[in-house]
């Protein structure tokens, strides 16, 4: 974009000036609202980032514990543990459901785990490794909880990151493009209206001067006509020519102006 912000192509009228001022007010309000939205999303983004770091730190310990418990179960129950577990599992005991959370107009996906039905404890009474298998199961349930929480946080993190980028682009567009362009348009309209006002003022002054000169000309013509009439009257009364009557009137005007007027 060039250094000088362009203006909108509009007709410089008073109506358009009011419309541009209304658009500037709307752009200012929209910029303020988007700025607040960006700040709120940024705060939520940082909170989620802290939770992700904490969840990843705990996930290492949980996965290490679950893997170690599986090794213990295999050591106690032997190599047949896989067949024993598969025979006692009909449906998934832990399932995941999703919901949406609204943060400043942005819908964040949230994942939750829940138990579907009662957990069977058929393996508890086995002679070899029943109790250890249950402990292993509990460790992996804990690992699933941490993984589901981490997946929810990570998905929300990516969604918020994209929303913040989009909001910041809109804020920058309003601040650096839309508002300066409208302000330049308002300045252009005001300048054109002032120029039109000066032109109208000059036109009125010219018209008034023309009317004043016309009135003076009419008065001069009326005065000449009155002098001609008076000269004819004097010519008839004195029995002299028109030029002599004018001379008499001029001499009388030099002596006493009230004689003529």
TrEMBL record:
It comes from the Eukaryota. Keywords: Ion transport, Transport. InterPro entries: V_ATPase_D (IPR002699). One of its GO terms (molecular function) is proton-transporting ATPase activity, rotational mechanism. Pfam families: ATP-synt_D. GO terms for cellular component: proton-transporting V-type ATPase complex; vacuolar membrane. This is V-type proton ATPase subunit D.
């Amino acid at each position: 974009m060039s250094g000088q912000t362009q203006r909108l192509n509009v007709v410089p009228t008073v109506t358009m000036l009011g419309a541009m001022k209304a658009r500037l007010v709307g752009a200012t309000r929209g910029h303020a609202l988007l700025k607040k939205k960006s700040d709120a999303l940024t705060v939520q983004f940082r909170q989620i980032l802290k939770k992700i770091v904490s969840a990843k730190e705990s996930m290492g310990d949980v996965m290490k514990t679950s893997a170690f418990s599986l090794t213990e179960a295999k050591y106690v129950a032997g190599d047949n543990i896989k067949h024993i577990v598969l025979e006692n599992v009909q449906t998934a005991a832990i399932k995941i459901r999703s919901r949406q959370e609204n943060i400043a107009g942005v819908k964040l996906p949230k994942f939750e785990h829940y138990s579907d039905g009662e957990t069977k404890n058929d393996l508890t009474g086995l002679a070899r490794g029943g109790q250890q298998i249950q402990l292993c199961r509990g460790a992996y349930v804990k690992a699933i909880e941490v993984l589901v929480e981490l997946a929810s946080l990570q998905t929300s993190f990516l969604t918020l990151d994209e929303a913040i980028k989009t909001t910041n682009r809109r804020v920058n567009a309003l601040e650096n493009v839309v508002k300066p362009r409208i302000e330049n348009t308002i300045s252009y309209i005001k300048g054109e209206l002032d120029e039109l006002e000066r032109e109208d003022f000059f036109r009125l002054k010219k018209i008034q001067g023309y009317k004043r000169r016309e009135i003076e000309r009419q008065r001069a013509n009326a005065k000449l006509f009155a002098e001609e009439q008076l000269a004819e009257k004097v010519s008839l009364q004195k029995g002299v020519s028109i030029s002599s009557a004018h001379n008499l009137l001029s001499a009388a005007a030099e002596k006493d102006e009230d004689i003529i007027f």
